[in-house]
Batch of 2 targets.
Target 1
Amino acid sequence: YNRTFWDSKLERQQVAAQFVWPADGRVQPAQDSKQLLNHAVATGKKVFFVFRTHTCGELRAVHIGQEVTLCGWVQYRRQDLFIVLRDFDGLIQIILPQEETAAQLKKILCDISLESVITVTGTVISRPSGQANPNMVTGEIEVRVQSAEVLNSSRKLPFETKELVKKSEALRMRYRYLDLRSSQLQYNLRLRSRMVMRMREYLCNLHGFVDVETPTLFKRTPGGAKEFVVPSREPGKFYSLPQSPQQFKQLLMVGGLDRYFQVARCYRDEGSKPDRQPEFTQIDIEMSFVNQASIQKLIEGLIEYSWPEEKGTITLPFPSITYAEAMGSYGVDKPDTRFGMKITDVSEVFRDADVSFLRDALGQPCGVVRSISVPKGNQYIFTIEDWFFIVTVINPCQQDVTFVTLQPDGTWKSVLTKLLTDGEKSELCRAAGARVGDVLILTAGDPNTANAALGKLRLECATILESKGVALRDHNAFNFLWVVDFPLFLPKEGNPEELESAHHPFTAPHPEDAYLMCTEPQKVRSQHYDLVLNGNEIGGGSIRIHDMELQHYVLETVLKEDTGLLLHLLEALDSGAPPHGGIALGLDRLIALTVGASSIRDVIAFPKSFRGRDLMSNAPDLVSPEELSTYHIQVSQPAGSGEDTTQS
Amino acid sequence: YNRTFWDSKLERQQVAAQFVWPADGRVQPAQDSKQLLNHAVATGKKVFFVFRTHTCGELRAVHIGQEVTLCGWVQYRRQDLFIVLRDFDGLIQIILPQEETAAQLKKILCDISLESVITVTGTVISRPSGQANPNMVTGEIEVRVQSAEVLNSSRKLPFETKELVKKSEALRMRYRYLDLRSSQLQYNLRLRSRMVMRMREYLCNLHGFVDVETPTLFKRTPGGAKEFVVPSREPGKFYSLPQSPQQFKQLLMVGGLDRYFQVARCYRDEGSKPDRQPEFTQIDIEMSFVNQASIQKLIEGLIEYSWPEEKGTITLPFPSITYAEAMGSYGVDKPDTRFGMKITDVSEVFRDADVSFLRDALGQPCGVVRSISVPKGNQYIFTIEDWFFIVTVINPCQQDVTFVTLQPDGTWKSVLTKLLTDGEKSELCRAAGARVGDVLILTAGDPNTANAALGKLRLECATILESKGVALRDHNAFNFLWVVDFPLFLPKEGNPEELESAHHPFTAPHPEDAYLMCTEPQKVRSQHYDLVLNGNEIGGGSIRIHDMELQHYVLETVLKEDTGLLLHLLEALDSGAPPHGGIALGLDRLIALTVGASSIRDVIAFPKSFRGRDLMSNAPDLVSPEELSTYHIQVSQPAGSGEDTTQS
C-alpha cells in the first residue's frame, strides 16, 4: 500500500477544484443561476459545472487560437508525437511538446497508459497543410498542449477498448463499464434519453398527461405465473413485482386523473427466453373519455414527435389491418410489411384437380390450400442448408409442404408437375402471383395451421434470400402498422373447451360483436390494438371494460376466475368509472429497432444475460439463512441439484 | 345477471365514439398530427383526443353562447334544478331543463346517483343577475343542458366523497381511487408531475444530462440489511432490490457517460418506521470532472427552475453551514432555520459558580453547559402536558435538564435562583440571549449529548408554542440550507472501537484532511453534502473516491469489509475512472414539503400503510407452496406466530 500515491492525488483534486469555472472568464461563480441558464442555452451547455472549457468533440477551425482545457481518456498515442483524447462528445488530436523545456510534461504524457484519464490545457491550432483528416469531425485542427495532469491512470486492460465490440457478449457484459465507452453504446443510450424526453414533452407539455408513479411492490395477480415474488416481514406473505401497471392505471382513471402516463419499470420472469429481460420499460398511457381511434392518433403523433431526425421521416397515419387480414396474408399477427410474399389462397385450383392429398385436405371441414411465392427462389434458395433451415422452421407446425420450382425454361420441378394440367398450372401461378424463376410453397390443412406454417416460411425465406445478397427488405425503412380487431378470447392452451383472454380480462368487446357475448363469446372481437414495427410488436392497448357487471361476467362466467382477487377493481368500476382506454409501448424494443440494434441488450445500460444474470456483479447470488430468516423463508434445494454458478 | 343492461351500455359506447372530435368544427379528423400539435398548443391542450369540447373548469364568461360537450362526475344535485359537474379541471353548474318536452332528459338526470359519470351537451349562459358565485372560478356562468347521457352509474358509496378527507387514513387508502378525486390529491399529483418535468427539462435539455435507467434486480450489497430479496429460479440465489443506484451511477461515469440522471425507484425495507415507504423515488444525479461547489450550484439552479410559481420565489445561493456548526447551534444535522432558539454555550458562567452539579459536569473531559432560550416560555409553556411531552422527548438522551423561568417581575423561578449571584444571573442571561418572559433550558455533559438533547427540546418547544398560537415559524417559508463537511467515518454503533462510513464507503475525504487518512481517520471530514429544507433532509451527495487504491484502503483497512463483494467496482476504478460526484434528492419528501402535506403518503398515488401494506388490494398476500417451489423456497413460520392479516 502506497500512501504517498493517493495523497498526491488528493492534492491534485484540491488543485483541480479551482478549475471549476471556465478559465476564459466567460462565467463567474458569482453569477446567479438564471444567468447561467441563459448562458448554457446560448453556448451549447456542454461546459457547465465542470473543469473543462470545451468538450473534445466540439472543437472546430473556428476555435483556432483559443486556449482550451479538455478532460478525457487517452484513446491512442503515436510515438512521442501526439495523443488522441476522447470524451463522450468525440475525439481530438493533442500535440505533445517537443521543446527541451517541456521534457517533464512530455514524459508524463508518453508514460501514461491507454484509457487513463487526463486533463490538458493548450492552444487550438490548424493542422499543417495537407494533414487534415476528413474522417474526423475535429480533423482540421489539433491542440498544442501547454500543461497536463493525470487525473487517474488505468491499469493495462485485459483487451483494447476498441476491440471489445469484437469480443464475446459475455466479456462485454462482464466489463460493461468499458463497453459503455464505445461510440455505439454512447449513441444508443443518448438517443434513448433524447427520445424519451421528447415523448414526455409531447405527453406532459402538449397534451396535459400527468406522470404518475405506481407501486412495484404489489399483490400477486390471479394466474400471475411470471411474476417475481418478494417476501415481506409478515410470515408467509409476499409482494409481487407487477408485469405492468394495468390495474393502477385503470384505478387512476376511476380516480379522475383523466390522462396518465409513466415510463414504467415492469418485471417478467420468463426463465431463459432469448432477448427478454427480467425487467423492462414501457411507455404506459391511459386516458378517460376516449375511443380506439383517438388513442391511435395520439400514439402516431407521439412517435412522429419523438422520432430522431437522422432516421428520416415518419408518414402518418400508420396503415391498419385487422387481425384476420394479418393472419390470412402474413400468417402472423405482427407482419413485416417491408416485403411482399403474401400468403394466397389457392384452394379453388385444387378443388377439382387430380391431386388426391390436396383434394383430401380440402374435403376436411375448413380445409384450405395456401401458398407463398418466393421471388428468385430458383436462383437463390434451396441448397441443402436451406432445406435444413426450412424443415427446422416448419417442424413445430407438424405441417407438410409442397414445392414448385418455376424453372427459367418454363418447366416445373415439383411432385405436382405430372398431376396438374397445363391449365391448372397456369391457374395456380396466376392465383399465387408466381413468375418464372420463383419457388412456390404450398401447404394444405385448416387455415390457422396453414397460415402459421407459411408465415414462418415467409420470414425464413426472406432471411435466406438476404443472406445471399438479394435486396428484399429496406433496412432503413420503418414500417409502422396497426393490427386491430383481435379476438377477445382464445381457446385455453391445454384445455381448448375453455376460453382465456387473448390479452387480458379488462379488454372491452368490439361494440359490433357485443350481442354475441352471452351466446358465442369465442366469436367476439375485442377493442384491442397492437402497434407493429418491421414485424415486431412494439405496443399494445385496448379500450377497457368500464362497466362492473360486464367485467364481473367476463371474469366469472367466461373465464371462471376467482373474482375475489379482483374485488377492489370491481368495486372501483362500480364507483363511477369513466370510459377509458390506453396503450403500452415497449421502449427497449422500439429503441433497438430505431437504432438498428440486433438485441435490446444494446440499448440497456446494464442488461442481464440470457439466463437473467448480471455478469458484472454476479447477481443473483447466495444469501445467508440468517438474512432470509427476516423474511421467514428458507431455501429448498431441488433433489439432485448441484451448484451452478458459472454458466450464464 | 342482466344482459340488456350492459348491452345497451355497449351501444352507448359505440354512439359515444362518434364524439371523438370536437363537434364545433375546430378540428377535423383529417388533420395531421403537426396541425393537431400546433392547435393543442394554441388552444390549451385540454380537449384533444376525447369526447368533450371543454373541461368543466375552463369555462368562463367568454364562452357564453357556445355549445359545449362536457364529461364528468355528478358532484352535487339540488332538487330538480341543477347539477354540479366535476372533472379534473374544476366544477361547473348544469341547469336541468324544466320544459315538459324534456321530461325524459330531466328524469334521467334527477335519478342518477352522485359520483356517476355523465356527458352533457348544452349552451353556456350567464347566471341570472345577482346569482354569480364569486367562490367558484366558473361562478359567472352555467350550462343549460340540451342532451345528456349516463356513461356509468355509481353505486351508493359507503360515504360521501367530500367527506373522505375527514375519514381515517385506513379508509382513505382502502378506497384510494375515491380519495384521488379530491382536489387536494389531484393538485399534489399534478404538481409532482409538473415539477419533475421541469427538472427533466433543466437536466436533459439545458445541461446535457443523459437519462439512464439502471437495474432494480441487482446483487445484494455487503451489509445491505434493509434490502428486499427476490428469489430467482436458480436454487438458493437471490436478487436484491437496491436502496439506490449508487454503484450503477459510478459505473456510468467510468463508462464515460459524463452526466447521468434518473428519476430512480429505490427500495428500503425498514419494517414499520413511520412515514417511510418500502419504495420511494429519488432524483439521482452524477457528473464527471466536477467538484462539490459545482454540484451545489447545479442543484440550486434545478430547484429554482422547477419551483412552482404559486409557492413564491427561491433565493439563491442557498446558505451553507458545516456539520460542526449545525450540531453546535441546532443539535441536529438538518436544522430548521425558520426560527432561532439556537443553542448557546454557557460553560464559562458556571466554571466558578457555586453550582456543584454543573461544576462537576464541567470538570469531566470535554464537559460543557449549554442552553436554549424559549421566547415567551413563561407565558405559553410548561403546563403539566408540556412537561410530559418534554420528558418524553429528552428521555432517549438520558439527559438531565434545568429550567430557569424569567418571570415578568424580574425574579427567577429555578433551582438555580439561590445558587447564583446577581452578576452570574445577568451573565447567564447575556450569554444565552434570554430576556424577561423567556424560559431558559440548561443541560450539562459532553457536547454531543448536550447538543442532541437541546436540539430535540428546541423543536419540541417550537411545536408547543405554535400549538398555543405563537407565530414562530413562517409556514409559507422555504428555508433551503446546505450542510457540509460531515465526518467521513463514525464510531460503529454497538462497537465504538471500530469505524463505519458516516454515509457510504464511496465518499471521498476532504482534501484538507487527506493527510489524516492513515493516522486518524476518525478526524477526517468528507466531501459529503446534505440539502435541508425546513429541518428535513431532502438530499445528500458527495464527491466519490475515484482512485482504486484509496477505495481499497477505505474498504479493507478502515472499514474491514470483504472487498471481494465489490471487486467489480474496484476493477472499474482501476480502468480509467474520471473524478466524479453526485447527489440524490428525495422526491417524495421534497414534494410533500412543497405542497405542505403532513405525510409523503399525500404525494404518492398508491402509498403503503405504516406496516407496508397496500390496503386496497391487501398486499402482501399468501402465495401457494407450488408457486414458491419455482423459486426453491419455502415458508418457515416463526414459532408461536399466528395469522395476522387484519392489522395495518
Target 2
Amino acid sequence: MKIAVAVAGAGAMGSRVGLYLTQAGQDVVLLDDWQMHVDTVTEHGLKVNTLGETETYPVSIRNFKDYSVPVDLVIVLTKAMAAEEKIKQLMDQGVITEDTNVMSMMNGLGHGDLLRKYIADDKILLAVTMWPAGFNGPGEVTLEGTGNIEFGRIDGTVDNFVKELNDIFNEAKLNGKISDDIVTSIWNKALVNCCFNTYCAVTDKKIGEFGAYVHSDDMLIPLMKEIITVGEQKGAKLDFDATLNKFHAMYSPDVVGLHYPSMHHDIHNGRKTEVDFLTGRVAEYGREFGIPTPYCDILTHLVHQIEK
Amino acid sequence: MKIAVAVAGAGAMGSRVGLYLTQAGQDVVLLDDWQMHVDTVTEHGLKVNTLGETETYPVSIRNFKDYSVPVDLVIVLTKAMAAEEKIKQLMDQGVITEDTNVMSMMNGLGHGDLLRKYIADDKILLAVTMWPAGFNGPGEVTLEGTGNIEFGRIDGTVDNFVKELNDIFNEAKLNGKISDDIVTSIWNKALVNCCFNTYCAVTDKKIGEFGAYVHSDDMLIPLMKEIITVGEQKGAKLDFDATLNKFHAMYSPDVVGLHYPSMHHDIHNGRKTEVDFLTGRVAEYGREFGIPTPYCDILTHLVHQIEK
C-alpha cells in the first residue's frame, strides 16, 4: 500500500524516518522551518554518515509555509514546544484534514493530550521510537545503530490503518511494532528521560558518573515514585523494581554509562530543553491530581535556571 | 581581664579573631594543621591585606599536635567536618579541661549538638559572626569590611564569663553582642546559607542571577518552609515573610547580588563543601522529627554529586 506522509520536523529522527519511508516507495515529504536546511537537501539531497562512510539520497523536503497538500499521515517530530503551532499551521494549510492520521513520535509527556485538542481519537496515533540519530548541520545527519517504532492508537484500537502502517514501517525496515499499551510505553521511556536527562544535565555528568555517586538511588527513588504515582493516574502501568534494575544496568560502560543524555547536549549547546515535557509535565499532572511532586518541581526549575 | 584563648583553625576568620584578640592584649594562640601556614606565620608574622595595603603582625601560632597548654576559651573555627576530631584532640592534649569554655563560631547547624557530646552545657558557647575575611595562602589573609560577633550560652544563661567575654570582644573591636536567642540567630544565618549556597553552587550562578529567574520564589519557598519547620522543632523562632523579604533584598547589586556564596567557591576550587552542616543537617533533623525534607535531601545530594 502507498500512502502520502508528511514528516513534520526534518531533524535527525525526522530525516531517518522520512528517508526510510521514501526508500520503501512511500509518497513522503519532509517539512521544516529552517530554509537553509530545506535548500541544502533540495539541491544536494540528504547527506547520510554511517560508520565513517557518506552517501547522499534524494528526499522531498519543503518549508512548512510552502506546503498545502492533504496527506494520509502526519508524523510529528518537531521540538516538543513547537508541536502545537505546527499542528495548527498544517490544519490551516489543509495538510491535516479530517481524514488525516496524526502520529506523535516525540519524546516526553502530554503529546496525546495536545493532539486531542485538535484531532479525533480515531485519527490519533502515539509512537515511541528507539532509533538513534544525529543531526550534523544543514542537509547532513548521522544514522547508525538499530531501533524500532512501537505505536498504537491513543484509545488502543487496532484498526486497518494501524495494521497497514505497521506493514509500511516494516517494509521500510523501521521495525514497526503495534503496541498493546502505548501509553505505558510512552511513560516508561519518559521515566528514564525524566530521571537521567534532568540529573545529568544539572550535575554535568555522564549516566555512569551519576550512578557512581554512592547515594544515587536516594536521588532516583523518590523521583521515580513521583513519576510512577502520577503516571498511574494517567493510565500507565509502571513497575518500580523493574525500572530501578534497568537504571542500574544503564550505568555500565557497555550500555549507556559513557553517554550524556540529550538534555545535557541541549544545555551545552545553548538550546532550550524539553524539560517542561518531562518532569515539568509530571509536576503539572501532579497538581491536577493533587499529588505532591517536589522532586519534579525542583528539577524542572533547576534545568530552567541552567538553560542559557 | 586577661584570658588564655586558643583559636582552633587559623583560616581567614580564625586569623581575624586571633589577631584582634592578640592586639587587644589577650593571651592568644592560633592552632592549625597546615605546617607551611604555621611556619610562615611563625617566621614572618601574619600578612594582612586591607584595601591594597599590606601589613605584617606577630601572632602566636602552633600546629594542633604541638600544643598542650590548658586555656580558658577555645574558639572553634575549623572546617565543620574537622571539628569533632579537633575537639577530641584538644581534650586529649589537655588544652580543653573541665574549666575551659568552648565556643563554636562555625557556620552551619549541629555544632551545639556536637559540643554537648563532650562539653557541659555551662561551658558551651555558640556564636554567629558576620565579619568577612579571605584567605590568600600560607601566612596571608585579606581583612576588610566590618561585622560583629553575636554569641551566648547554649542554654541562654548570661553568667559572668559571658559578660566578660563580651567586654573582651568589644575591647578587641570585634563588636561583641550577647544574644538573647543564639539558637534563632544560628538558624537565621543557616537559612540564608541553606538556600543560596546550595542553589547558587548547583546552578553556577551569582545570588542576583539566581534571583533573576522568574520562578526563583517557587524554588525558595518550599525549601524555606522545610528549614523553618525543622528549625522550630529545634527551638528557633523563624519568620517566613521577613526572611523572604530579606532574600529579595539580597538580589540587588548593592547588597550581595554580584557575589557567589562560599559554597560556589568551594566547588570551583575542588574543596569538599559544608553542605552536610546546612541542608544535610536539616534533612537529618527532619528524619528525627518525622518531617519530610525533599528539597533539603535533593539539594544535599546534588551538591555532593558536583563536589570534585
